[in-house]
Amino acid sequence: MNAPYDGDRGQGAGGAGPSGGPPMPPGPGQGPQAPDPYLQDAYDRDPYRAQDLSVQDPVTEALYDRAAHPPPPPGTYQQPQPLYQQPPAAQYPPDPRLWAQTPPPEPGGPLRHLPYGDNPASSQFVGVDDLVSQASRDDEQPDAFAHLFRDQEGPAGSTPVSPEPEPAPAPEPPKAGGRASGILKSSALMAAGTLVSRLTGFVRSLVITAALGAALLGDSFTIAYTLPTMIYILTVGGGLNSVFVPQLVRSMKDDEDGGEAYANRLLTLVMVALGVIVAIAVFAAPLLIRMMSPTIANDVAANSVAVTFARYCLPTIFFMGVHVVMGQILNARGKFGAMMWTPVLNNIVMIFTFGMFIWVYGTSAESQMGVQTIPAEGVRLLGIGTLLGLVVQALAMIPYLREAGFRFRPRFDWKGHGLGKTIKLAKWTVLFVLANQAGVLVVTQLATSAGKLSGKDGTGFLAYSNAQLIWGMPQAIITVSVMAALLPRISRAAHDGDPGAVRDDISQGLRNSAVAIVPVAFTFLALGLPMCTLLYASAGTEAARSMGFILMAFGLGLIPYSVQYVVLRGFYAYEDTRTPFYNTVIVAAVNAAASALCYVVLPARWAVVGMAASYGLAYAVGVGIAWRRLRNRLGGDLDGSHVVRTYARLCLAATPAAVLGGGVGFAVLQGLGEGAFGSLAALICGGAVLLGVFFVAAKKMRIEEINGMVGMVRGRLGR
Fold it and tell me: Inter-axis angle of helices 260-283 and 216-232, to 10 degrees?
């Protein structure tokens, strides 16, 4: 039997009843109607009107196994919550007088999760959310154009209007670039400072060579000038340069005072230790000269000049260490420029000092001055100028420290504040530099002896040092600058236990530095001869040619030397100084053994050239060992395929460039001679060909680091 149509429900005989709903009571004068059997219980339980979400389908209700799923005990049943509800209205309506007003944060509820993963705390909305949240409000909104009418009213307006609130200044948008941009900027600042410092240092070496020559007198001053640096590195320099930066970063992160007390204790400790070292070193100057070069010590005149120079130079150990500690404090605070720029002052003072010496006595080629003929006043002038340069360099750091908010206050409470751990870590670093300087000591003695035995200028230790100075400039300008910016970040990643971040930063440092290091290394190999004949022409053509051959021998060793520097920073970030020590022992042993073999096998004229080649060979052996150990430390992954592919492609691009550029340079030298004009022309022509061929080959190989560097340069130039 079919149910009646809804339109007929509740209709009486006259058909005037309601069209639906429950039965209406009878009107006056009407008798009670008989209940409709189809409607008598229809509206007792309406799930749609009651919005009862717990109502079950009858079939499902009949099949429901209540024995397996008993109902909850009385009093624990949670009332169903409405599925949909309007969000609460905004507390304050938007002000129509403010353009693009930032709305309040999204309310809690279903709308707190916005589509497409937007964050309501950092997203700005224009109108849409107000329409949704205020859809149910009927209150009157202010006229959005009322202020236009008020602006047109005269001064005799009806009621004074309160001054409009000033719109809140929009937050300054973050600068684009992120982490890589910050590293590039810091690296660029340090690279600029290091570039100027190295260039002025190079000019300093040119002036020293012009004043003292490349014979025994020049070797005597070079050994005395190198001695303070060697002692400083052997004592505290290695630890300051590598261990104390991570410690300073940790103290800034963990200490309540931002690491200022730790930095004051460290600086005080270093000053006291360096003062004691200087006193001992000045007293033991004759023994130190004999240790550095028995050849000079056995020559009475040369030994006297070298000891006098050394006693003027050795106090620079103190100011050298103070300068480094101040620079590391600034580096830990994110200030990288001062440590790279202040050495320029030292170079300027020394250039001025040796310039005065040349102005008074003339160049070495003019005066033919030697260890027997140099006057005491000249030795005193050069010694005081050398000491004054380091004093100015150290004192110039004080304004930068004040600007960074650091005030030095001597603190002698060294015990129980973490310095013992730092000194324990520095122990292996001291052994590291001890092994390294042991190799340098062997090379110094052999080079000095070879120079005296050959009887030719430019075949001794001064020539070796000058060529090494040119050779090391790209590494100091590029690699050191990149890693100085990365080292604090690598230290934080290692401290947080994030080997992936350490690996990525090491890989980035290797690949970014390789873009410049690899072509420069091949440039030294191809154009080392015209480079030195141009720069050291004041020392004589023979000496300049000898330095050119030494620079060519150094050439390709720049690549493993730079890689070794970057890889060792990974160990220092983990406070592992033992592994770099063992690695350096191997490097120093290979260098000393190969140099001794060259001294014995090769003629004295070419012995120093062989020693320069041995230097790069030793670092190539050290890189293989250090790479494998760091890879194991980082879980077996050092991004090796990416790094090796980058270096291999750069070397493939640089090989034909070096062949063609070197050939052009040699042809120009043969045609124009080895004078200043011929050397300059050979260097310009050969360098242009080398760089052009390298750039074209690198673009053809699609080396991404080259493309990134070109894009960055174009962006800086606005093209």
Answer: 140
Q: What is the DSSP string of 588-599?
A: HHHHHHHHHHHH
Q: What is the largest CA-CA distance in the chain?
A: 149
**Per-residue exposure over 678-701, b if at least 16 CB sit within 10 Å of its own CB, e if not:** bbebbbebbbebbeebbeebbeee
Contact criterion met (CB below 8 Å) for 444 and 229: no
Cβ atoms < 10 Å from Cβ of 188: 15
Residues near 453 by beta carbon (within 8 Å), at least 6 away in sequence = 604
Separation of alpha carbons 168 and 715, rounded Å: 33
Distance CA 233, CA 540 (A): 33
The model carries a pTM of 0.62
Cα 548 to Cα 587: distance, rounded to the nearest angstrom: 25
Q: DSSP character for 32?
A: P
- Give φ, ψ of 80 to 5 degrees: -65, 140
d(CA 509, CA 569): 10
Nearest to 530 by CA among 672, 366, 364: 672
C-alpha–C-alpha distance, residues 301 and 296, integer Å: 9
Which of 319, 343, 308 shows the shortest CA–CA distance to 223? 308
DSSP SS3 for 56 = coil
Q: Give per-10-residue mean pLDDT for the chain (719 aa).
A: 46 44 52 60 56 53 59 61 60 59 52 45 44 47 45 45 47 44 56 76 88 84 89 70 62 67 80 90 91 87 91 91 82 71 89 92 82 89 92 88 78 61 61 73 87 79 87 82 75 80 85 88 92 82 86 93 88 78 85 92 90 92 89 80 88 92 90 83 92 88 70 52
Contacts of 419 (CB under 8 A, 6+ apart): 262, 265, 266, 269
Cα separation, 564 vs 569, whole angstroms? 9
Taken in order 298, 304, 305, 308, is the CA torsion positive or negative?
A: positive
Angstrom distance (rounded) from CA 380 to CA 361: 14
What does the alpha-carbon distance between residue 646 and residue 628 come to, in Å, rounded to a whole number? 18
Question: 10 Å Cβ neighbour count for 562?
Answer: 30
Contacts of 301 (CB under 8 A, 6+ apart): 370, 371, 372
Q: What whole-number distance in Å separates Cα of residue 383 and Cα of residue 341? A: 23
How far from the centroid of its chain's Cα atoms is residue 124's Cα?
Answer: 34
H or E stretch at 467:
helix 461-474
Angle ∠(391,393,399) on CA atoms, nearest 5? 110
